[in-house]
Amino acid sequence: MVRSIEGKNFSYFEAILQLRNISSTVLDFVYAEIDRGKIHIAKEVESKNGLDIYLADDNFTRALGRKLQEQFGGENKITSTLYSQKDGRDIYRITVLFRAVPFKKGDIVKYKGDDYEVKILGKDIMLQAVKDGKKVRLKCREMQQIKVKE
Question: pTM score, two decimals?
Answer without folding.
Answer: 0.78
